[in-house]
Design brief:
Elements: H1 2-14, E1 18-23, E2 35-42, E3 48-54, E4 60-62, H2 69-82, H3 89-106, E5 115-119, H4 125-132, E6 136-141, H5 144-154, E7 157-160, E8 173-179, H6 188-198, E9 199-210, E10 229-230, H7 233-242, E11 246-252, E12 258-264, H8 281-291, H9 294-298, H10 302-321, H11 327-354
Parallel strand pairs: 5-6, 5-8, 6-7, 8-9
Antiparallel strand pairs: 1-2, 2-3, 3-4, 4-10, 9-12, 11-12
Length: about 350
């Protein structure tokens, strides 16, 4: 037993945080700093991946880049995650449930008909939900297979390509959503700047990213090739502010794994001078990553709860996809209660106005 523990400890030491100051090849996207420390040398796949943290502001990123981002997201990303170029019924159902949970987070922003942009539309499940609820929805998706599927299956309006190359008139949208996409981009600051330009003066940008402070996952799963950047609330808020976006509020998922931040173009009444450096954030994030060990993780109920949840989800997906003819039929059934509820709500609202 002790030999097994020693083996684990030796392996973890190889991947341990290095507090030695090194020079990075990619300057910090937030503060421009070049002095970093190494947080990890391995990805969750077990392959070499150097993840560094800025000593001035605490932003975390992969240095050097682990892949050609354009080719990876156009051709390889969906295949590596889903093992398919088009979503299978179980993927559609799974994404449909996620879409419903995301809608709940922004429901109050969509009480009347809105113009919405969804960045990273994927298979189109979230965009189709909003479209079914009566909103005017546009999407952006770099993967041709998934984008074509969403256009054909759900009749969505999707620009195929990267957000940096998308073309929209200034101030086109009431709401812009970017769910688990910002961490995949090579220049997240530039992406936020673009999204701000497409947002109406009184609009809302909703950004959701993994939380680098999360300990709900096994330590070896914290960093991987697909996530070029890793944020906590402080670094995400500061990066947004750098590009003229201000936090209205943020949510942390129940397991601590995700940050959902609501950003506006409206400056706060109390002026707060912008500073790129974030004192103490490097030490805070480094300590959390360093202390997140396999032993600590397996002393919590989280890994065992995840196994149970995956088993239940698999059984549910088999049952619900057994007779699904198309992705659209699957989602129409799943979304029906939500669509009916909101249609009734709009009807009652119009009746009240008429009365």
């Amino acid at each position: 037993m002790r030999e097994g523990v020693n083996s684990v400890e030796q392996k973890e030491k190889k991947m341990a945080v290095s507090e030695q100051v090194i020079a990075c090849s990619i300057a910090c996207n937030l503060c421009g700093g070049t002095e970093v420390s190494i947080l990890s040398n391995r990805s969750r796949s077990g392959k070499p991946l150097r993840t560094v943290i800025c000593r001035a502001c605490g932003l975390v990123w992969s240095d050097p880049r682990p892949h050609d981002a354009r080719r990876f997201y156009e051709e390889e990303y969906r295949l590596s995650y889903k093992h398919t170029y088009r979503p299978k019924p179980k993927h559609v159902l799974r994404a449909g449930h996620v879409a419903l949970s995301r809608f709940k987070k922004i429901e109050q922003l969509l009480l009347s008909r809105k113009a919405v942009l969804d960045v990273g539309t994927g298979g189109g499940e979230f965009a189709y939900l909003l479209q079914s609820l009566g909103h005017s929805v546009s999407g952006i998706e770099p993967n041709r297979g998934y984008a074509d599927y969403s256009i054909r299956e759900y009749g969505l309006t999707v620009q195929v390509g990267f957000v940096q190359e998308a073309a929209f008139p200034p101030e086109s949208f009431d709401v812009v959503t970017i769910w688990h996409v910002l961490e995949h981009t090579e220049d997240p600051g530039r992406v936020l700047e673009l999204l701000r330009s497409w947002l109406k003066a009184d609009g809302m940008l909703v950004v959701e990213v993994p939380n680098v402070e999360a300990t709900c996952q096994a330590p070896r799963n914290t960093f991987h090739e697909a996530h070029l950047y890793n944020f906590n609330v402080v670094s995400l808020r500061r990066l947004a502010k750098k590009h003229g976006l201000y936090e209205a509020k943020h949510l942390i998922s129940r397991d601590g794994g995700n940050i959902t931040m609501f950003l506006t173009r409206t400056e706060p009444l109390i002026e707060d001078h912008y500073e790129a450096a974030i004192p103490g954030n490097y030490e805070w994030v480094s300590r959390i990553v360093r202390q997140h060990s396999n032993v600590r993780h397996h002393l919590t109920p989280l890994p065992y709860l995840r196994v149970w949840q995956r088993l239940c989800r698999s059984l549910q997906e088999r049952r619900e996809t057994a007779h699904a003819a198309t992705g659209k039929a699957l989602l129409d059934k799943l979304y029906s209660p939500q669509v009916q509820f909101h249609s009734v709500g709009r009807h009652e609202e119009s009746q009240t106005v008429q009365g």
